[in-house]
Amino acid sequence: MTDKLLLSRRKLIGGLGVGAGGLILSGCDALGANEGFRSVLRSGEDLTYRAQRLVSDRNALAKEFEEADMSPLFRANGNIMPASTDYAAHLATNFADWRLVVDGLVARPLSVPLAALMAMPQRSQITRHDCVEGWSAIGKWQGPNLSHILSLARLLPSARYIVFHCADSFGSHPYYESIDLVDALHPQSILAWRMNDAALPVAHGAPIRLRVERQLGYKQAKYVMRIEARERIDTLYRGKGGFWEDDVGYQWYAGI
Amino acid sequence: MSDSDDAETTTPSGGDLVKRHHLATRIWHWTNAVTLLVMLMSGLTIFNAHPRLSWGEYGANPDHAWLQIGAENGGGYIRVGEAQITTTGVFGLWVDSEGQPQNRAFPSWATIPSDYNLADARLWHFFFAWVLALALVAFLLISLANRHIWRDLRIRLSELSPAHIWHDIKEHAALRFPVGAAALDYNILQKLSYVGVIFILLPLVILTGLTMSPTMDAAWPWLLDLFGGRASARSLHFIAAFLLFAFFVVHMVMVVLAGPFNEVRSMVTGWYRLPRERAEEPEPVSEGESA
């Protein structure tokens, strides 16, 4: 008891030693590490998700730009070359034998060659890519609507989330992302195989990457190999619905 | 204490203890004090993730930045347009508590959390953003209802005459603050500062914050038109935050100069002791010189 008191007093004196700013900071760091306080902070996240869904029409479109508005150089971020040997083999053959797998809670699992994705009805859009770090770049994306592919696979009524399994990984953790059906069926949600009027470069996610235009960059999964329809995402990997969500605690709904 | 009872009916004078701030004003003030500090410090962590500001619809590392904080050749710098100042030790390049050099833009003593952690900074920032926005709306509604805005913050045309403003600036520079009953009313410099914060800077910082949200841009496309794009909104967001910080600094200085005990008491309890009339100066009229 007295030990504890002594310790906290020492802490206090130490804090005063580096000034009031230091005291505020160490207080904030201590609060930020407290699980109860963190859950209070996280309630803001939930509120933001609900509020954003409340004020935005499910089909409200992200702004589309003109060619003249495009970034001269579109920065690549995250992994820029998957390390797997499978991926290297696909890259060597220009994805000729590559198949996009669509499975999980669907009536008709699919295995779609890249040429078939290219032959589907296409959507092209010039949109802004917003990184969680604060930078943004405008680029042109083309590919089939995700909703078209999901309609071919016929989602089962129990499906609530669409998960994107990727070829790249960070250490032993594969990259993956997930979105709900509102975003999955959104008219601007596409699987882009073209970027800026050329084949999607490896650094940007070849052969296909997800574009989900009302969310931040880490949701735009690159190197998508498999699309899985699921009822819940908390039983997948480390439970937060995406690599960065699991790894550092970024928001699952990256609308802000 | 006794002189407070008739404060409503007769004109109070220097030395009287008078009711100055509504409960709503006081609650909002202290809520804001905490909220703005957290928003500012967690915002600096978020800035550290991309320590550059641009104008227009987009802005990333290859693009032109009008402001940049960084490190090169063993020194920290802030670059604004063509001008560059060396900030080694404070911004761009500094030494942490373990003696290690760090090249984040803002040093750990200025950020929440103190160690760079973008995810946690966003957690703090977006929780307190709700507090900031909801408290502002509540304060505005209550202050319309209790006539605080109309009675205390309304700027009269006559107050905006250059002569009047210049007179107030001179009085402030000479540290001659209003005394007696005159101290009950905000002077024009106070009004301009408070109105600027409440009706310009806080709405600006909230709306430019929303403009950085891709979902909000889809829901409210006018946000992008209003601020000229996301990169512009991000620049304006940091400028507004900087001006709020500047307000905070001036506010602190004025509280200290005007008498910190009396000022803090009035914002905690609501009761304020009117400064006594200065003896050496002939006051125009001072009935009830009861001191």
Q: Helix content range of the residues of chain B, please?
A: 40-55%
CATH homologous superfamily caption of the largest domain in chain A: Oxidoreductase, molybdopterin-binding domain
In total, the number of strands of chain A is 11
Summarize model confidence as the mean pLDDT of chain B.
Answer: 91
List the helices and strands and how they pair.
The complex is a heterodimer of chains A (256) and B (291).
Chain A: H1 2-17, H2 19-33, H3 35-55, H4 85-92, E1 99-104, E2 110-113, H5 114-119, E3 122-130, E4 136-144, H6 146-153, E5 161-170, E6 173-180, H7 181-184, E7 190-192, E8 194-195, E9 198-199, E10 209-211, E11 224-230, H8 243-247
Parallel strand pairs in A: 1-11
Antiparallel strand pairs in A: 1-2, 3-4, 4-8, 5-6, 5-11, 7-10, 8-9
Chain B: E1 17-19, H1 23-49, E2 52-53, E3 67-72, E4 75-80, E5 83-86, E6 94-95, E7 101-102, H2 118-145, H3 148-153, H4 162-173, H5 188-211, H6 214-219, H7 222-227, H8 230-258, H9 260-268, E8 271-273
Antiparallel strand pairs in B: 1-8, 2-3, 3-4, 4-5, 6-7
Helix pairs in contact in B: 1-2, 2-5, 5-8, 8-9
Question: Could you name the key traits of this structure?
Answer:
heterodimer, A: 256 residues, alpha+beta, Sulfite Oxidase, Chain A, domain 2, 2 domains, 5-stranded mixed sheet, 4-stranded antiparallel sheet, globular, B: alpha+beta, two-stranded antiparallel sheet, 8 strands, disordered C terminus
